[in-house]
Amino acid sequence: MAIVYLILAPVLGGLIAGIDRKLTARMQGRVGPPILQPFYDVAKLFEKEDVTVTPSQNFYILSYLVFMAVTGALFFAGEDLLLLIFAFTLAHIFIVLGAYAAYSPYSYVGAERELITLMAYEPMIILTAIGLYLVTGSFYVETIATSQVPVILYLPGVFLGFLTVLTIKLRKSPFDISTSHHAHQELVKGLTTEFSGATLAKIEIAHWYETVVLLGIVYLFFGFNPLLGLAVIVVAYILEIFIDNTFSRMKWQMTMKSGWGSAAILGFLNLVVLYYFYLGV
Amino acid sequence: MAYLKKSPWLLHYDASSCNGCDIEVLACLTPLYDVERFGIINTGNPKHADVFVITGGVNEMNREVVKNIYEQMPDPKVVVAVGICAATGGVFRECYNIAGGVDEVIPVDVYVPGCAARPESIIDGIVKALGILEEKRAKMKGQEGSA
Ligand code: SF4
Does the reported pTM lie above 0.90? Predict the structure, then answer.
């Protein structure tokens, strides 16, 4: 499973990105690029001249890609959810380090914003793991995914909270503060400002891996019914695209409030209710 | 492999344009012309850009800026000068602070005529530039092979 993931996830992630751009264009009344556009972009980046500001940035970005792939491999090997979250966070620390390594005010601002988003979504991700543990009695992805308990019925709040941080994680408006395809002159693409060519392509591929893992976590809530799970993934992603297109970018304070707010209200409250009324199901 | 032609990211810089040509460049991105269907993305970052679209004549203040942006773009790259001002300085040619066309400062690959240049001709110019971009890529690769 893990090996299949390592090979297929970039393909799937790239396709999702392509469909995303097409749907976005259609929502805006445009024709939009071909579905395979993200692959063209990445292939092109590999053709470009390699401009490196500091050699260490390439190392950090490679680590980012590797740890993102490891995260996904852990997930699809059915490993421990906590270990997975750890690898996931580590991957992001590497991209932040890469941006800091480049000595540019733009990438500094991008890196700081990335750290803020990291802070914003982390509590909710951990609450998600705890919630899944409370309901299914295990941190192992395999056990959770194959559990026959209708997890979503016990964790509706946690699920909604997770969807909120999913918007942050997928770098969708209104939370695309650290890097975005749409932020032109005002952000100069934040975090990725100093990366070009093959390095930038690696970031893109890592993002494809990431998308697949995140959608995989969505599936965990519906493990009792695989078809429903897949349907929810599709609906959730379309919802994210819709949100992306209807909101403008907001300040980082809003990202913090949404991330922690959803963790405190949706996530925590859900867990409290679960703890007092249903524990032992 | 010629993926470069399928995914040109462009950087748009206004070196003292009257804003007429700028508006037309941005019009290309609107739903009516929708250049994203050719894979074109308007980036704000020279390090990500393949095509440098520049409007207006270069003035003495931003001579260095234009040069700097051009030098930051990784090879292969092309420059498209949009509008008469970008070609020769146009109506501002006689002004004391205007250096003249963009080619005073950096090499220009394609000139797009018009005052203001129409979105159709801008798209034409960029498509033409893509051909040159591909040539440059092939040349770059040839050099790498022989080196
Ligand atoms: S060519 Fe005409 S429209 Fe374009 S910048 Fe010059 S004066 Fe303005």
Answer: no
- Kindly state if the Cβ of B89 falls inside 6 Å of ligand 1: no
Q: Give the residue from A1, A99, A6, A117 showing the smallest Cα distance to A56.
A: A99
**Residue A215 exposure: Cα atoms within 13 Å on the Cβ side:** 24
> Residue A183: is its pLDDT beyond 60?
no
Domain boundaries, chain B: 4-145
- Find the B86 Cα to ligand 1 centroid distance in Å: 8
| A–B interface: beta-carbon pairs under 8 A | 79
Averaged pLDDT of chain A = 83
Angle at A89 between CA A153 and CA A45, to 5 degrees: 110
List phi, psi (to 5°) of B41. -120, 140
Each residue's pLDDT tens digit, A202-232: 888 988 888 888 888 888 888 888 888 888 8
Domain B4-145, what fold? Rossmann fold (3.40.50)
- In this predicted complex, what is the ipTM? 0.81
CA–centroid distance, residue B59 to ligand 1 (Å): 14
Rounded Cα gap, residues A52 and A40, in angstroms: 22
